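Technical annex, item 7. During the second reporting period the consortium partners agreed on a shared format for inverse folding records so that results from different sites could be compared directly. Each record opens with the tokenized structure and is followed by the designed sequence. A conforming record, contributed by the partner at site C, is shown below for reference.
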């Protein structure tokens, strides 16, 4: 692997993208590429395999969508076969890549389709029959279409593995290997991953050809612009403290993370009972429910969205003012991905973590990974000694620490997960 040492480009015009792409970029009001875009796009345009390491909110989706659109425009092939494939671990990320593609290609006549489970097959089957240039897919549903003979990769030029480490965490590695072995060996492969555990490095050596690595920031480091605070509190008072925090004037758009789907539902119900405008997002919600929750949260119809870790890398909302960890995440990587939903696009944001005594070791792990202590905060008028009651008193205890890449959040899946 070769580490990129190029200086950042100052404008999109200097990247020499297709004029129709530049027209769309300018219409969207974008003037300067983010660091990951400035450093990755020239390598992708040059046809190099690439490993991109950057935190959420840094613009990495456009870092591969733009040069791939440029490549497909320049090659001017036509037909029904897929020419570019994006693979992502969740339906939200698959949709996010497709949304980026559509917004950036308003002057480009290339067809794309998002392929994921949890929704009827027929619309996807019909789109594939008509022909698409680009697919953004989750591994399980993609294999369904492949084994049914609906997708032919004979003309595939580019493969993107987005959030590769998360796909590993969710048990998709066997499916990824199956898919990669069905693709043409002569192709360009791009991999984006916040961390590089050994199984991902094995994929790099097996399926990428002399890749260049673009590293933005330190791995396992939080985005710049985030203000961290830890709120020590007895577990049975977490909901009370959260409700007190939500009364703050600046709490305009708050993403709250719970450890399990059950606790997310319970917390959302309790907040709604107290008069908070709240939506909920987790793996047991239907696709329609997920999209509705995201849309309500995006347009401000709800102040709070309670979510499990399935949302940590799948929410693309620029103006989240606060991320609150109702439950401390199991490892530092999940902490970084959760809080990366705020302070996006060089903005500022707040990351609050409610921690009971049993979760303190998890906070120390986070502090060690970030190489700094996180400030402890107490509210002067909050009664930390009051007796318990309500749903929070029945919340699950914090898990024991473990080291080895496993994640909580109630959505861990193996095999052909959807």
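Designed sequence (site C submission):
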């Amino acid at each position: 692997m070769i580490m990129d040492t190029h200086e950042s480009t100052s404008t999109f015009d200097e990247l020499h993208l297709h004029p129709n792409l530049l027209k769309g970029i300018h219409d969207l009001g974008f003037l300067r590429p983010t660091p990951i875009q400035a450093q990755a796009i020239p390598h992708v345009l040059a046809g190099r395999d690439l490993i991109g390491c950057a935190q959420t909110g840094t613009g990495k989706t456009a870092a591969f969508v733009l040069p791939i659109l440029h490549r497909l425009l320049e090659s001017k092939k036509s037909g029904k076969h897929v020419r570019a494939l994006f693979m992502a671990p969740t339906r939200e990320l698959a949709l996010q890549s497709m949304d980026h593609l559509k917004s950036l290609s308003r002057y480009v006549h290339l067809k794309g389709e998002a392929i994921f489970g949890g929704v009827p097959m027929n619309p996807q089957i019909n789109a594939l029959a008509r022909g698409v240039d680009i697919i953004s897919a989750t591994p399980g549903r993609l294999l369904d279409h492949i084994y049914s003979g609906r997708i032919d990769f004979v003309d595939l030029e580019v493969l993107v593995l987005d959030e590769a480490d998360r796909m590993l965490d969710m048990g998709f590695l066997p499916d990824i290997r199956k898919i990669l072995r069905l693709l043409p060996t002569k192709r360009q492969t791009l991999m984006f991953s916040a961390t590089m555990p050994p199984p991902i490095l094995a994929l790099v050596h097996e399926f990428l050809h002399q890749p260049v690595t673009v590293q933005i920031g330190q791995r396992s480091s939080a985005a710049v612009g985030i203000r961290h605070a830890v709120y020590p509190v007895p577990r049975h008072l977490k909901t009370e403290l959260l409700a007190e925090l939500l009364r703050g004037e600046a709490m305009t758009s708050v993403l709250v993370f719970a450890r399990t789907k059950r606790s997310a539902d319970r917390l959302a119900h309790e907040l709604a009972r107290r008069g908070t405008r709240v939506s909920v997002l987790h793996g047991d919600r239907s696709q329609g429910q997920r999209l509705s929750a995201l849309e309500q949260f995006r347009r401000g119809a709800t102040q709070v969205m309670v979510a499990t870790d399935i949302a940590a890398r799948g929410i693309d909302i620029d103006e989240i003012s606060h991320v609150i960890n109702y439950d401390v995440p199991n490892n530092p990587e999940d902490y970084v991905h959760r809080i990366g939903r705020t302070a996006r696009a060089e903005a500022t944001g707040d990351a609050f973590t409610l921690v009971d005594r049993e979760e303190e070791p998890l906070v120390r792990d986070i502090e060690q990974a970030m190489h700094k202590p996180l400030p402890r905060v107490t509210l002067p008028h909050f009664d930390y000694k009051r007796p318990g009651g309500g749903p929070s008193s029945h919340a699950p205890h914090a898990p024991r620490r473990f080291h080895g890449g496993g994640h909580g959040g109630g959505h861990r899946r193996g095999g052909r997960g959807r």
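Residues 13 and 19 are 9 Å apart (CA to CA). The domain at 226-394 is CATH 3.40.50.300 (Rossmann fold). All partners now use this format for quarterly exchanges.
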